[in-house]
From TrEMBL, chain B:
Residues 8-242 form the ABC transporter domain. InterPro entries: AAA+_ATPase, ABC_AA/LPS_Transport, ABC_transporter-like_ATP-bd, BCA_ABC_TP_C, P-loop_NTPase. SUPFAM superfamilies: P-loop containing nucleoside triphosphate hydrolases. It comes from Kangsaoukella pontilimi. Keywords: ATP-binding, Nucleotide-binding, Transport. GO terms for molecular function: ATP binding; ATP hydrolysis activity; L-isoleucine transmembrane transporter activity; L-phenylalanine transmembrane transporter activity; L-valine transmembrane transporter activity. PANTHER family: AMINO ACID ABC TRANSPORTER ATP-BINDING PROTEIN (PTHR45772:SF7), CONSERVED COMPONENT OF ABC TRANSPORTER FOR NATURAL AMINO ACIDS-RELATED (PTHR45772). GO terms for biological process: D-alanine transmembrane transport; L-alanine transport; L-isoleucine import across plasma membrane; L-valine import across plasma membrane. Pfam families: ABC_tran (PF00005), BCA_ABC_TP_C (PF12399). One of its GO terms (cellular component) is plasma membrane. This is ATP-binding cassette domain-containing protein.
UniProtKB/TrEMBL annotation, chain C:
InterPro entries: ABC_transp_permease (IPR001851), BCAA_transport_permease (IPR052157). It comes from Kangsaoukella pontilimi. Keywords: Amino-acid transport, Cell membrane, Membrane, Transmembrane, Transmembrane helix, Transport. GO terms for biological process: amino acid transport. This is Branched-chain amino acid ABC transporter permease.
Amino acid sequence: MMTTTEYRNLAIGAALFILAACLPFVGGAYLLTIGVTIAMYTVLATSWALFSGPTHYISLATAAFFGLGTYTTGLGFEHLDYWLLVPLAAILGAALAAIVGVATLRLSGVYFVIFTLGLAELIRQLVTWGQNVSGQKGLYVLTDLTEVHIYWQLLVLAALVYLTGWLIGRSRLGFALRIIGDDEEVARHSGINTARAKVLLFMVSGAAAAATGAILAPRYIYIEPALAFTPMLSFQVVIMALLGGTGRLWGPVVGVIPFTFLWEAISASFPNQTTLLLGLCFLAIVFILPKGFVGLLTTIRTRMNAREAFS
Amino acid sequence: MRADAPVLSLRGATKRFGGLVAVNEIDFDVAEHEVMGLIGPNGSGKSTTLNLISGALKPTSGTISLRGTPIGHLSAQEIARRGISRTFQLVRLLPSMTVLDNVRAGAVFGHRRRWGAEADAHAMKMLELVGLARRAHAHVGQLTYIDTKRVELARTLASDPKVLLLDEWLAGLNPTELTEGIALIRRLREEGRTIILVEHVMDAIRSLCDRCVVMSSGTKIAEGTPTEVLSDPEVIRAYLGDDDA
Amino acid sequence: MDILFTGLLLGGTYALIAMGLNLQYGMARIMNLANGEFLVAGGFGAFWFFTAGQVSPLLTIFIVAPVAFAINWLIYVVFLRPLVKRAKSRGQLEVDAILTTFGLAFFLVGLTLAFFGGDYFSYSYLARPVTFIGETYALNRVVAFFAAVVICGGLWLWLTRTRAGMSIRAIAVAPDSARLVGIDVPRLSALAFALGGAVTAVGGALISTFLTLDASTGVLFTLKALIIVIMGGVGDVRGTVIAALMLGILETFVATLIDPGLTLAAAYLLFVAILLFRPQGLFGRRQA
């Protein structure tokens, strides 16, 4: 079944991961910090696009899943083996996604956006309230894990996300999602259980985001609701994924890398204007790059092909 | 023919939208290998009836059964899996995909589920049946109007449906295309498929249908062979209005 | 009793804000996620005029409304109309509108932060107690409530009795047919959008007399307004009012009896319940 192109893509992917895994040996501390940020957003944006790309539902729940993951580590690391926490967070994330999905994915996209936007806020308020009642403020996550460990863990997670995405793309589920993305009514009348397909994909992206949060918790050392559930995270993930383009599996990472550097520069030079610039990024994506870098490349390629055909 | 249990039967099927009764207590049966025409003036409830059968709408009351099993409460996807497949009044294709992938959608998820090479081969066979095999790898955006209709027909056929619902499949075709379209449906008829046709084109009804059900204002007003129903005075009145009767 | 009346007073102002969003989403078909920012802007206008020139917020709304109307009209024409034109489907327009209005929301918050900083702004206007059936209420809440009632009533009359209002409602029900009967859909959509923005800004000016606002609270109000609109039914004026009053009572109830930090959580749970059991809104007909 596998074609030569697919083997080639798989080989290229594997080579890139090995290359990325070598970063701690060649780069300094600063590069490693950037590396962690890029790896984190690669996981978040790619898993976001796995769901939102074909279904066109915009999820703003990333922060909710991410926070759930950080709190899983924060509350559990003294009681459970650390290596159990990340899969546990993934399971919790998938479960939360399943509940949210069943409640909202039958409805129009607008309801879903609002629901997911409110979700992080809801959990944040509940956690804050719980902490007020119990008299405890934040959580200390003290482990002997270093930045390098976190980086490698994120890379493994990213590889898993890509592998999952690739497998889904080759499966009936992937084909079903493409049909749903094109015309949901046709999908239903062709015999596709549209609700189930959407919920399954949302669970994948929820699990990935929760696992990311669980991996990153030791980096923060001290976690509190405002940090773990920051809505900014959800918005940045949306921007990066759309900037890269959601039509291809490799699309989001093309957005993540330049955006991370851009954002580092912006936060350093205009720390007070970040919100304003984030707004401009949204507008730029809609009006200048509606299909992301991937779309731009496809347009250029078709134009070049057309030119060859006519010459 | 009557001895066989019907493939599809409607008993008292009714659909209300608020105060408006779009389909009112409709009864009819469709036998195996039969081509049944569902005809009537605009707004008489034909398309709504088709939507009830395909599960796009749920009946307010009454039963719809497929080989004796009630299906009225099922969702569209479950009905599709049980073997009722439809085309849409305004053609609906999957715009980002090739012709072959459009047809594959029916082969992969329909009544009989295939995957991989088997699905591809089956989809190709359906494209040959509708006469579009050489355009299999074209993008659907490049097709002519009748070819988009062929793709949609191939997609519904690819699921091996027990009952095929064609919602004004011949509408909007020019005279040459119409001849081709009628010939295509006749071929399906000769293959022994069970079909319900919602149609306005009278020539097609006369030459294709074994039997017709005529609807007017949501109610069934006549049933019989095309010749019988088209000479029925009540049917003529429904089409032309009281003044001309 | 006390909770009920305080809740009703709060709900009255919510109704006004949600009505603004409902005009934009139900009639102009744009989900404006920057709606809350106009609320904050309206509140800021009231604050500024009051502290700088002791102008009563009840007079300020006559300045706030036309300014907000003009800005929203411009936003519609410059940003949203091109999206409406290029959209191939309702779904695509929805996604584009969500992203654009989010972008605008961030942009506006960013502007406010850049020029005025992240301070809370509050002022003391009519902060006197009034007594009603043995309980005391703040006069500013009562005044805001009655102002909201007057404006809601006026809007309702405008929508049901005037030609423009009825045309706008026709667009809400059936945009395609509205075009066929000679309604200028693009112009009236812009009008509905601008009017919605103005109504929300006025609601903001009123709410600022008794609530403390800052640049980042906009999104919370957007969320509340959305919950009300969906609960009451998209495009349904009566439903919006009732849903707003319910939300006001629920929030006051939770804030008084459990914890003020949980008001949004309560509103959200109400929203979940509505989505699960009556996704068409409290009074909406189930769409087939």
